[in-house]
Amino acid sequence: MNVRVLCSIFVFLFMFTAYALPAEKAQKQSPPLSKEEIQKLKDIAVIVAGEITRRGIKSVIVTDFKDIGGKPSKAGKTASVEFRKQIETIGKTNFTVVDSRYDSQPSGGGALVTGMFLPFKGGDKWRLDIKVLSPDNRLITSYSAFYRKAKGVKK
Q1: CA-CA distance, 67 to 14, in Å (whole number)?
Q2: The whole model's pTM is what?
Q3: pLDDT tens, residue by residue, 31-89
Q4: Comparing C-alpha atoms, which of 44, 58, 41 is closest to residue 135?
Q5: How far apart are CA 86 and CA 49, in angstroms?
Q6: How many other C-beta atoms lie within 10 A of the C-beta of residue 115?
Q7: What 3-state DSSP class applies to 8?
Q8: Hey, how many other C-beta atoms are within 10 angstroms of the C-beta on 34?
Q9: CATH topology of domain 31-148
Q10: Across the beta sheet with 59-62, what order do the strands follow?
Q11: C-alpha to C-alpha distance for 110 and 8, rounded to whole angstroms
Q12: Please, which residues have CB within 8 angstroms of residue 116's CB and are 6 or more apart in sequence?
């Protein structure tokens, strides 16, 4: 074989491996949420749903939570799916949660729930910032939370 062809194959494999490794690493950093984390998201959903109900909002879209760079992340998507389930359960008699895959903007006086989910290195802490916006992009309410896993007692 030609040396150039071998070098091209080597460079291609090197670049492909370098590209694939960060994605695998990111998948390992976003395990399923624990019961404690789900409970924390439920507590936040109760507060946000109460404000949505108090304002008489009838429809809500919950978008995937972003990372610090404003891009959707796997951990943010996991958290937003759970938050969506919690807020839908809590507010089912007062408002509907519309699937963000089909509608990107709230209609009929609805609201848009956006968030930023930031897991800290090690996975034992995270921060969640949630904003509820009106159709004209005005802030209705916001909520920030920090979560820290309880450390077990070592014997």
Answers
A1: 28
A2: 0.70
A3: 677 888 889 899 999 999 999 999 889 999 999 999 989 998 888 898 999 999 999 99
A4: 58
A5: 9
A6: 23
A7: helix
A8: 12
A9: Rossmann fold (3.40.50)
A10: 96-98, 59-62, 111-119, 125-133, 139-148
A11: 54
A12: 65, 66, 67, 68, 76, 127, 128, 129
Using only the alpha carbons of the chain, give its radius of gyration: 20
138 token code pair: 């005005």
**Which has the closest alpha carbon to 18: 7, 27, 29, 10?**
10
Show the tokens assigned to 5. Answer: 């062809």
SS (H, E, C) 36-72: HHHHHHHHHHHHHHHHHHHCCCCEEEECCCECCCCCE
16, amino acid identity = F
Show the 3-state SS of 65-129. Answer: CECCCCCECHHHHHHHHHHHHHHHHHHCCCCEEECCCCCCCCCCCCEEEEEEEEECCCCCEEEEE
